[in-house]
Here is the input.
Amino acid sequence: MLTVENVTYKTGKHTLVKDVSFMVHPGEIMVILGANGAGKSSLMRLLSAEKTPTSGSISLSGKTLNSYAAKELALKRAILNQQNIINLDFSAMEIVQMGRYPHYRNQPTAHDLDIISEVMTITGTTHLAERSFLSLSGGEQQRVHLTRVLAQIWDTPEALLLLDEPVSGMDILYQQQTLSLAAMLAKKGFIVVAILHDINLAAQYADNIMMLKNGRKWYHGTPAEILNSKSIYDVFETEADVFTNPNTLKQLIMPKVVTHEVPEYNLKSFTL
Amino acid sequence: MKNGLIYTILGLAVFFTAALSLSMGAMKIPVQDVLLILAKKVWLFKNTPVDEQFDTVLTIVRMPRVIMGLLVGAALGISGAAIQGIFRNPLAEPGLIGISSGASLFAVLIIAAETALLAGLSNLLGYYLLAFGSFAGAGIATLVVYQISRNDGRPNVATMLLAGIAVNALAGALTGLVTYMANDQQLRNITFWLLGSLGGATWQIILCLVPFVIIPLLLLPTMAKTLNAFALGETQAQQLGLPVGRVKRWVVILSTMAVGASVAVSGIISFVGLLVPHMVRLIFGVDNRRVLPASALMGALILTLADMIARKIVAPVELPIGVITALLGTPVFLYILIKDKKKITR
Here is the structure.
């Protein structure tokens, strides 16, 4: 279980995360929504233990993140970042193997190799194994990174999987594949926390949604409970219609057109 | 290809190139005599007679030079590969973070002072002075760059590169100033030293060089896994539970040791630290567990070859070896740059 209690995070004068608390159970996908600058990424950095909260505590399986040794934590939580720029010409297989680095000393064991081939099958990257990573398309590269991240925690029960905008800039097939994979992993017993920009994807896949604004938690609940025109206006300052998809009974969000007043320019001021 | 096979092939190539290099020179010594004399040094074929003169020339003149070439080549090769791992970019080089220019500035100051003031010193003492001065220069340059690049308690690679540029520029300007004020004799010494040479090799210098090369050769390969993960980004490597900060610190220290000492004894030999890891990656892939040891071997091989060319091409005089490595290196460097610019300049 991931437990976040009264977490505040400040850098200098700015408070990026204010007094946020929530819990995510194994088997659950929680999606964090919020406008740009709402504190989503800062919260993600706290959850990944890259940064330490100014106050409050975050614990995983009853143990605070601070008290984990870096190596121990690497076995229990993995992060898929939005972009990973790589300049050295590793093969896709070598990148995936890096996910198992916390598990072996010099050479991967038979168990590591089994896990690698299993996750590669699941993510459909087996055919990319020997390809140069730099020659892959953006979607393929992201899928290889996903495979690496899965390999890292595959054999850990109740591991924490953090997805930081995992599908931004990807086509809809990849979006659906990645999130249904995340749903499957949650079923397997993982704790999944994802930052998404697409509210519809969140409605489709999240068990719980937390909406952030100005570093604070504004809404928290199931998609059905909290996704409505009011909450979306509060958090995103955008008017939207919320429907129910008759086929899936999930929420469908349709933002309204924002109209701008076109200012009239005083053309005289441009004449010399 | 199996690792053992790679190292065996490279090792044999290094050995036979070194033997060939030993046989070359004003006095031609047949390769089989070279091998026989080498074998006798390790107590084999004790009773087979060899030409005394051959033995003397080899032992006193050629062996120090060839061994120094092997050590300097290995040092430049492996530290280049390691630094590129830290910078996550195959274009990075020890020279970039100011190690070489810092070492070079101090060496030039000492050469100028030596020619002017300390002429009474014996050659050997002067050489030691030069060597330690260069270590100090390399160390200071690296410390300055390292301190500047620390941000939020952690060294930042981009700042480190920029600070390296600044240190290089400053050291270059000061070197220029010293050169401008130098008299003819100083200028000749400085210029020759700046172009790089293995000509000054003696057994004492090798004894002085050995620890500074062997320690990095032994320790750097143990950091290969973490260096691989650096390719994902420092944050990502940390998320894998790897000792990112510690490895970065040690790579910088060990590279300073190896490159500083190499610059001290042989001047700046450019492009070896850049080209050798490139060649190795092209042939054996980019996994640092292979790249680091193979770069050491390949560096030794390339530098020995370059030294042979430097001695042969305008015999009986010899070209500074830095000219050869730069001549061989720059076209390949440009080729890589043009071919891969999209991949490596992001």
Observations:
- The CA atoms of residues 8 and 124 of chain A lie 40 Å apart.
- The mean pLDDT of chain A is 90.
- The radius of gyration of chain A is 21 Å.
